[in-house]
What does this fold into?
Amino acid sequence: ANTKVTVGALAFTSHAASFVAYERGYFAEAGLEVDFKFFQAAQPMAVAIASGDADFGVTAISGGLISLAEKGATKVIGGALSEEKGIDGQKILVSDAAYQAGITTPKLLDGKKFGITQSGSSFHYMGAKMAAAEGIDLNYIPLQKVPAVIGALKSGQIDAWAIVPHIAKPLAGSGAVHIIGDVADYIPDYQVTSVFTSANNAANERAKSAAFLAAFAKGAADFNAALVDKTAGDDAAEEMVKLVHKYVYADRPYDKAKPGIVNGAMRINAGAALNTTSVKDQLDWFIAEGLIKGHITMETLVDPSYVETM
Amino acid sequence: MQLILDSVSHRYGDVRVLSDVSLTIPEGQIVCIVGPSGCGKSTLLRFLGGLERPGAGKVLQSGPLPDGCLNPLTYVFQDFALLPWRDVTGNISLVLEDHGIKGAKAARIIDDVLIRTKLSDFRNALPKQLSGGMKQRVAIARALAVSPAVMLMDEPLSALDAQTRELLMDDLVSLWTRTPFTAVYVTHNLAEAVRLGHRIVVLSRRPGTIRDVVEIDMPLDQRRAGNPTLEAHQARLWQLMREEAEAADKELSNV
Amino acid sequence: MQLILDSVSHRYGDVRVLSDVSLTIPEGQIVCIVGPSGCGKSTLLRFLGGLERPGAGKVLQSGPLPDGCLNPLTYVFQDFALLPWRDVTGNISLVLEDHGIKGAKAARIIDDVLIRTKLSDFRNALPKQLSGGMKQRVAIARALAVSPAVMLMDEPLSALDAQTRELLMDDLVSLWTRTPFTAVYVTHNLAEAVRLGHRIVVLSRRPGTIRDVVEIDMPLDQRRAGNPTLEAHQARLWQLMREEAEAADKELSNV
Amino acid sequence: MSDPNAATTPVPFRGGGFKPERIRFVGLAVFLALVAIAEWGTRAGWISNLTLPRPSDVLSTFRDLYDTGLLWKHLIPSLTRLAVGSVLGVTIGIGVGVIIGLFSMVRAGLVPLVAALFPIPKIALLPLFVIWFGIDEGSKYALIALGTFTPTVVATYGAVDNVDRTLIRMGQSFGLSWWSIVRKIVLPGALPGILSGLRISLAIGIILLVAAEMLGAQYGIGAYILEAGSLYDLERLFAGVVILSALGVLTSAVIGWVEKRMLAWRI
Amino acid sequence: MSDPNAATTPVPFRGGGFKPERIRFVGLAVFLALVAIAEWGTRAGWISNLTLPRPSDVLSTFRDLYDTGLLWKHLIPSLTRLAVGSVLGVTIGIGVGVIIGLFSMVRAGLVPLVAALFPIPKIALLPLFVIWFGIDEGSKYALIALGTFTPTVVATYGAVDNVDRTLIRMGQSFGLSWWSIVRKIVLPGALPGILSGLRISLAIGIILLVAAEMLGAQYGIGAYILEAGSLYDLERLFAGVVILSALGVLTSAVIGWVEKRMLAWRI
Ligand SMILES: Nc1ncnc2c1ncn2[C@@H]1O[C@H](COP(=O)(O)OP(=O)(O)OP(=O)(O)O)[C@@H](O)[C@H]1O
Ligand SMILES: Nc1ncnc2c1ncn2[C@@H]1O[C@H](COP(=O)(O)OP(=O)(O)OP(=O)(O)O)[C@@H](O)[C@H]1O
Ligand SMILES: [Mg+2]
Ligand SMILES: [Mg+2]
It folds into this structure.
C-alpha cells in the first residue's frame, strides 16, 4: 500500500532532509514511494507543484510561491532551514573592489548595487531587511540565477550580496569577495525555507502529507545531529556527508565536495516546525513592497495544522 | 456547338471595360478578336469560358456537344499554364483524371494528341526542358485531349518568338484542316488574324465595342504569308486600328 | 565609326555557341542579325558592346567618333532595362550624371531626346505607369541621349504586342531617316528585319556561323508592309531558316 | 440575335475563388471573441486562474501601469535598448550584407560563418556577453545587435543577389562607374528585400528584449515580464506580453508604411 | 578582313563583375583562421580565459562528451524534442497556413492573430507552459511547436498566395474540382515557399531548444549549455553552442537536399 509521491528538489544541502529520509528508508517506512524530480531553480519547482507535476517541495518563501498560494494552488505546511544564532548562517558579501574602496560594514552600502536573482526572491528580502535596519538604500540588480550573481560579484559589477555559508565561505576564501556581516544579525530566527505542497494535498490528502512531514522530520533530525549539532560523532558526520554527496556536488570528487557540504549545514527545524512569526514578517514585507496583492493573509499561505508553529 | 454573346457590358470598379458587345461564334469556324491593349479582349474570353460573369448581358451556348466531349469550352493560355512539376504526359493526364479517365484509356487519348501535335518524342520532358514553342504545343495537346467543342485561345502565340510563331501557325492550320474545330482566337497580331481567322472582330479602344467584323473567305490552307488578298485585309485592319493602338499605347496607368 | 568582328568563336563550358564569325558593321547602316533561338545572337551583341570577351577572335572598332559622343556603343535592351524607381527624366539623366552633365545642359539634352521620341508629356511618369511601347521609347531616348556611335539593339520590340511593334518600327525608321545612325539589330522577326535592315545577317543554328548576308537596297522610308520586294526577301529568309528554327524549337534543354 | 437550332443555355460559371479578399473587422471580431471567452471562462471558473488571467484584470493592471507612470519607466529603457541594439545590428548587417553581395571572396568567407551563427540561441551566450560587455546597457545592446545582425545580413545579400542583372548590365553598357552602379542601381534595387528582412530582424529584436533584460535590468518590459513570471503574477505577465506584441505589430506597421512611401515605384 | 580608314582599336571591355562566383574552401579557411587566432590568443594570454575558451580545450571537452557517452545522452533528448515539437508545429502550421491561403474569411480572422503572436518571446511564457503542459516533455514540445508554428503559417500562406493564378484558372477552365485544384495545383505550387519557410522554422526550433530545456530538463544540449553558462564553464558552453550551430547547419543542408530532390522541376 505504497502511495506514490513526487518530491521536487534542488541539488543543495538545504534539501538534505529529503535525501536522508529517502536513503535511510524513512519515506518507505511511512508508506511513501518517493520519486525525486530535480529542478534548476526554486521558481519552476513551485509552479510544478501548483500544476500537480510534483507533490512536495522545499523552497524559500518567494513572491512566486505566495502568488501561487493566492491562486489557491499551494500551501506552506512546514518549516525547514532556519537562521539561528550560534550556527553559521547566511553571510553578507561585498566584492573585492568595494572592499578595497572601504566598504567594510553593511552600513556603508548606501546606494550600492546589491545582487538578487529576482524581485521578490529571498535575496531581495534579506537585502531589504538589512537596508531597513541600517537605514540605507540599496540598488537591487536582478540577475536571474545564483551563478550569474556570483560572476557579477567576482568581477565587481555588483557590490554586495547575501548567501548561504557554503557558497559564501569558499568565495571569501579565494579573496575575490569579502564577508562583512551576518544575515542573522538583521533577521533573527529567519525561516529561510519551508515545506510546501499543493492546496489539494494539504486539504484532501492529509494522511499523505502528514506521512511526508514525519519522514522529512526524521531525516532532518539525523542531519542536524550529524552536521549541525555534531552530537552523533565524526563517523556519523562522515557518513552523512557521503549520503548527501550522492545528490549534492555529485560531479565533484568527495574530497572537494565535503567542505561545501559541511559548511552548508544549517539547522533544519526539528519536527519541521514552522516559524510563523518570520513567515508573517516576510509576507508583510512582500505586501509592503507591492510585489504581491495586498489582500493575501497568512491563512491563504500557510496551513498550520500539520506542524508545530513558533 | 455555337456560342452567343448577347449585349454584354462590364465594368471593373470605375473602369468600363466592355460596352454592349453582341457576337455569335458559329460552329466550325475560327473567330479572331483583335483590338488595342486593354480593350477587354481577355475579359470577353473569360466570359465566353464561364470563368467570369459579365455585369450585364448574357453568354449563351447552343447546339449539341460533339461526341466524347469532356470539357466543352477549353482554353489555351498565352503563357501556356503548364504545371511545371508534371511532365508532358502528366500535364495532359491532369485534365483527364477528374473525369475518371485513367490507365489504358487515358494512355490512348494522350498518345493520340501527342501524335497530332508532334510531341511523341517528348512525353517525359518537364516543362522547363522545353522551348516556348514546345510548351505551347503541349498546351494545345492538353486542350485537344478533352475534345473541346470550342477552343478559347488568348494570344496563344504572343509569348513566342517570330519564327516559332510561324511554325505553330502552320501547325494550327493543319490541325484545323484535318478536323475543323470552333475557336475564338484573341490576338494583337493582325498577320495572325488574317492567317487564322474565318472572321475577324475588331474591337474599339476601352470600353470595347465592336467596330467592325471582317470575313475572309479564303480556305485556311491556301493562305500564305505575302498573299496579296490577305495583305490587303491586313492593311485595312491596321488602318482601322492604328489610331486606337496609338492612343492605347500612350495611356498612363494609375497604379 | 565602324565595328569589326574578326573570326570570333566562343564556348560556354561544353557548349560551343559561336564559331568563326567575321563581320563588319559599316557606318550609317542598320545591320540586322537573325537566327534560330540560342544560336548566339545575344552573345554576339555582348561582344560587340564590350560587355563580354570572346573566347577566340577579335572585336575591333575603327574610325572617328561622332561629335559629343558620350558612350560610343550603346544598348537598347529587349526588356527595356529602365530603373523602376526613377521617372522618365531620371532614367535619362542617369546616363548623363556619370559624364558630369547636370543642370541646364542635361535638361537641354533630355528635352531634345524626349521630343524626338514623342515623350515630352510623360517626363515625370514612373516606368510602372507606362505601357510597354512607351517604356521602349524611353529606353531609346536614353540611348539617344549619349549620342552613340553605334546602337546595339537586342530584340528591342519582341516584348511588345504586334500593334505597338508596328508603331515603334515607324518611329525607328523616321529617327533614322532624320539622322542616320549605325545599328546592330538582333531579332527573330523576319518582317522586322526586312523593314529595318540595310543588311541582314543570317546565323545558323548553334554553334552560330554566318549562313548568308542579304542586302536590301530599298530606302527605309519607302518600305511598307505588303511591299512585294520585301515579301520576297522575307520569304527567302524564311526558307533559309525554317529547318533551323524547327530544330532549335525541338531542342531539349538540360537544365 | 441568333437562331439556335438546339436548346440555348447559359454558359455555366466555373471561375471565382482562390483570390484572397480583404474582409475587414473579422480579425478584430475574432480577437474580441477570444478575449470574451477568456473573460467568461475565468469568471465562471471553468478556466482556472492558474491557467489564464482574467482579461479585465490584465486591462486594469495595464491601466495601473499607465496611471503610476511605471509604463514609461519600463517602456523607455526597453525602447532605447531596442533602438540602439537594432540600429547597430541592422546597419552593420546591411553593410556586411551588401559587401557579401558584391564581392565573391567576402561571400565565400562570411556566408558559412553567418549560417553557423544563425542557429545559435542568443540566451546561451548571455553569460559571455556579461563578461564581454558588462551587466549594464552594453551587453543588452550587444545581444539585440547580434540577434538582428544575422537575419539582416542574410536578407541583404539575398536582396543584392536578386537585383535585376539586366539593370546592372545596362549601367555597365552606359559606362557607369562601379560606385555609381552600386549607389544608383544595386542599393535601390535591394531596398525592397532589405526592408522585408527588417520586419523579421525587428521582430527578433523585440523577442530578444526579454533575454537581454534577464541580466541586471531593473526596468524594462522584459524585466517586468521576468519579474511577473517569477512572482507568478499572470496579470502582469500578460500585460507585458501584450505590450511586446503590440510593439511588434506596430514596428511591422511602421515598416509597411515606409515601404509604401519608399517603394511606391513597385508594380 | 576590312580596311578601316582610321585607327583600329579593340572594343574596350566594361562588363563582368556583380556575379557571385563560388569560391571553395575560403569559408573553411576563414573558420580555421579564426580558430587559430583564438587558440594563439588564449595561449599567449592576450585573450583572457574569461573572454574566450581555448579552442583546443573546447575540442577536448567535446571529445570527453563523446567518450563518456554523455554526448548521446544530451543529444538524443534534444533531437527528440526538436523532432516532436517541430513536426507538431510545422504540420499544424502548414495546415493552418493553407487554410488561411484558401479561405478569405479564415485569413481575415487569423492573420492578425498570428501577427500578434509572432513577436511574443516564448521564454516569457515559460511559467504558463508549465501549468498548461506540465514540466515534462509536454511543455518542451509545446514551446518548440509554438515557436515553429507562427513562421510556418506565415511562410505557408505566403506560398499559397504566390501560386501562379493562371495555373488555378487553367484548372478551373478544365472543370477540375475544387479539391483537385488544391491537391494538384495549389499544394505542389506552394511547396517551394513552404520548404524555404521550413528553413527558418527549424532554425527557430533549434534556438528554442535552450528555452525549452530551461524547464526541468536534466539532459539535453540546451540544459547542458544552461548549466555550463551558470557555472561560467566556457569550454562546455562553447562545446554546446557548437553542437547547436552544427545542428542548424545540418538541418539547413537537409532542407537544401530535399529541395533539390523534390523541386527538380524548378527552373
Ligand atoms: N480583375 C480585374 N480587376 C480590375 N480590372 C481589371 C481586371 N481584369 C482586367 N481589368 C482591366 O480591364 C481592362 C481590360 O482588360 P483585358 O485584360 O480584358 O484587356 P485586353 O484587351 O486583354 O488587353 P491586352 O491586350 O493587354 O491583353 C484593362 O484596363 C484591365 O486593367
Ligand atoms: N552566361 C552564360 N553561361 C552559359 N551559357 C550561356 C550563357 N549565355 C548564353 N548561354 C548559352 O549560349 C547559347 C547562346 O545564347 P544566346 O543568348 O546568345 O542566344 P540567342 O541567339 O540570343 O537566343 P535567343 O534567340 O533565345 O535570344 C544558349 O544555348 C545559351 O543557353
Ligand atoms: Mg489580354
Ligand atoms: Mg537573345
